[in-house]
Amino acid sequence: MIVLSTSQGASASGGLWWPAGVAAGFALDEEGALWAERVAPEGSTIERLSRYITELGGPLGMTLGIAALWSSDPEAGATGLSAVAHAAIATYGLKILTGRARPAHGEAGWFGPTLSDGKHSFPSGHTAVSFALATVVGHKYPEYREEALALAAVVGLTRILLGRHWTSDVMAGAALGVFLGDAVSEGRLGILWEW
Questions:
Q1: pLDDT of 118
Q2: Is the separation of the CB atoms in 13 and 182 below 8 Å?
Q3: 3-state SS class at 16
Q4: Residue 189's beta-bridge partner residues?
Q5: All domains of the chain, ordered by start, with CATH?
């Protein structure tokens, strides 16, 4: 069950940083794609390394991250699982609705509702779930907040380097992940499961 509450608290999702970041991402989309082609051409060391790092934001990486969190603190693990689930559901819905072509797909643009993976670029799901979990870690363990967010940012960067996302997709995924991680951690968006 999803529950919204009116509790207020200081959070990373407050303020105007996220719309400004997404807007800057749109302005940098084309240059970001060209930069990625130069920095991480297919077969390069950076491209191969990025293929491994990007999996931290995939299903296996998220499962291992949540399991590690759960083993040390079951409440934090449940919060992390819920934030990641909210982020995954939200990003997948937005991907279907917007139908944005991926940079490597060969055609730029927004094609509206579609189930084609080649047109599921906006927002970056790997980035959203990584930032959602990193935000929960930051709430539960403030001494690791910067490291967790930096790791999430590296996952987002790999999505650009691999040609899977535009810069704005990654910025929107980061903003969505932080917003949902904050909302679940602060009790404004409920835990999806009762344990």
A1: 82
A2: yes
A3: coil
A4: 4
A5: 17-185 (1.20.144.10)
Report pLDDT for 194: 52
Kindly report the backbone phi and psi dihedral angles of residue 4, in degrees, each rounded to the nearest multiple of 5, phi listed first. -105, 140
Measured distance CA(22)–CA(38) in Å, rounded: 23
Q: How far apart are CA 103 and CA 83, in angstroms?
A: 28
Which residues of the chain fall short of a pLDDT of 70?
Answer: 1-18, 105-106, 191-195
Torsion angle, alpha carbons of 175, 180, 185, 191, to 10: -170
Decide if 167 contacts 29 (C-beta within 8 A): yes
Separation CA 188–CA 50 (nearest Å): 34
DSSP conformation class of 101: P
CA distances to 124, 185, 195 from 158, in Å: 11, 26, 35
Distance CA 168, CA 102 (A): 11
Instruction: Give the pLDDT of residue 1.
Output: 28
pLDDT at 109: 86
Instruction: Answer yes or no: are the C-beta atoms of 26 and 168 closer than 8 Å.
Output: yes
Burial label, 71 (beta-carbon count in 10 A; 0-12, 13-18, 19+): exposed
**What count of residues does the chain have?**
195
Q: Name which of 171, 168, 172, 159 is nearest 26 in CA terms.
A: 168
pLDDT score of 21: 75
